Amino acid sequence: MGKEIFYFLIFPGLLFSGVVGGFLSWFDRKITAKVQFRQGPPLLQTLYDFVKLLNKETILPEKGSRFTFMVAPIFAVFGAAISAVLILLPLLNIETGFAGDLIVIVYLLNIPSLTYIIGAVASANPLASVGASREMKLILSYEVPFLLVLTSIIIKANMTIKLDEIISYQVQNGAFIGSLSGIIGFIVALLCIQAKLGLVPFDIAEGEGEICDGITIEFSGSTYAMVNLAKYIMLFILPALVVGLFFGGLNFANINILWSILKVVLVVLLLTLIRNTNPRVRIDQAMKFFWIWMNLFAIVSVVLAIFGL
After folding, report:
1. Shortest CA distance to 186 belongs to which of 292, 297, 286, 303?
2. H-helix or E-strand containing 154?
3. CA angle 21, 243, 235 (to 5 degrees)
4. Structural contact between residues 90 and 164, judged by C-beta atoms closer than 8 angstroms
5. How far is 205 from 197, CA to CA, in rounded Å?
6. Quick one: 292 exposed, middle or buried, by C-beta within 10 A (0-12, 13-18, 19+)?
7. Helix or strand run (H / E) with residue 15
8. How many CB atoms lie within 10 A of CB 172?
9. Could you tell me if 18 and 25 are in contact, meaning their C-beta atoms sit under 8 angstroms apart?
10. Counts for the chain of helices (H) and strands (E), in that order
11. Residues 14 and 78: beta-carbon distance below 8 Å
C-alpha cells in the first residue's frame, strides 16, 4: 500500500509529473516566444504562476453547484496523476501488474476533459456552457481516430494490450515509427493529443477572442491552479505515451538517458510548432477534420499494420 501511495503522490505520479510538466510548459512558452521574436518567461515562471494562483482568492459562482464546481479540478488532477502512474511505470521498466492497462489509460486520460466540462456546466455561466459543448464535440471527434491508432499499435505488437509488452516488443524488433503504418499513426496520434491538450488550432473550448476562455472562464485562485496543474501533467504524459507507443519507450541507462529526454522534448516541440503556425479552427471544421481525414489516415494505418507494413 505504501508503495502505491508513493507511486501516486511522489514518483512517477503527482509531484514528479507535475514538476516535469511545468518545465515542459516553460519550454513550450519559451519556444512560442522565440517564434514571435520575444524574450519569453524565466525558467521557474510556471512555478511562480502556480504559487500565485494558490494565494489568490477563489471566487465561486453565485449560481449553479458550488460543490461540483470546486471538486471538478481536483478530479482533473487525480485523473492526470493516475494516468501518469500507469504510463510512466512501464516506460521506467516497472510492470503495472495487470493486463489491459492500455484500455484503462485511455479511459483515465479523458477524466481531465470530462471534469472541465462538469465544472463549466456547474458554474452556470453561459459562456462556460458554450465551451463545455465544444469540448464534448471535440472529445467525440478525436477519440475515434486515436483509438484506431491504438488498434494499429496493438496489431503490430502481436495483439497485446499491455503497455510494457508493447514497449518490450519494440525494443526487440525496432520502434514502430520506422514502419509506414507507424509514421501515419504517429501523425494522427500527434494531432489527436494536440486536441486533447486544447492547443491551437484546437483550443476551441477556450476561444479567448470569442467566449473569453470559455470552459475555464469561472475558475480562479486555487481551482484555476488545479486546472493548470492537470494541464502540466497532461503536457508531459501524453508525449510520454506517444514515445512509448512509437519510439520504443525510454531508456535511462548511460548515454541513452539523453536520447530518452530528447524524444519527449521533440514531441512537445512538434506540438508547440503546430500551435504557432496554425490559426484556430471552428468546431465544425475540427469535427470534419477528425471524423473524415484523421479517421481515414488511422484506418490506412490499421490496414498497413495488418499487412505488416
Report:
1. 297
2. helix 126-156
3. 20
4. yes
5. 11
6. exposed
7. helix 14-35
8. 8
9. no
10. 14, 0
11. no
Separation of alpha carbons 248 and 251, rounded Å: 9
pTM of the model: 0.94
Residuewise pLDDT in 10s, the chain (309 residues):
778 888 888 888 899 999 999 999 999 999 999 988 898 899 999 999 999 999 898 888 888 888 999 999 999 999 999 999 999 998 888 766 667 789 999 999 999 999 999 999 898 888 888 889 999 999 999 999 999 999 999 999 999 899 989 999 998 998 999 999 999 999 999 999 999 999 989 988 887 766 777 788 888 899 999 999 999 999 999 999 999 999 988 877 777 788 888 999 999 999 999 999 988 899 999 999 999 999 999 999 999 999 988
Return the DSSP state at 136: H
Long-range contacts of 103-108 (CB under 8 A, 24+ apart): 103/161, 105/163, 105/241, 106/146, 106/147, 106/150, 108/79, 108/82, 108/83
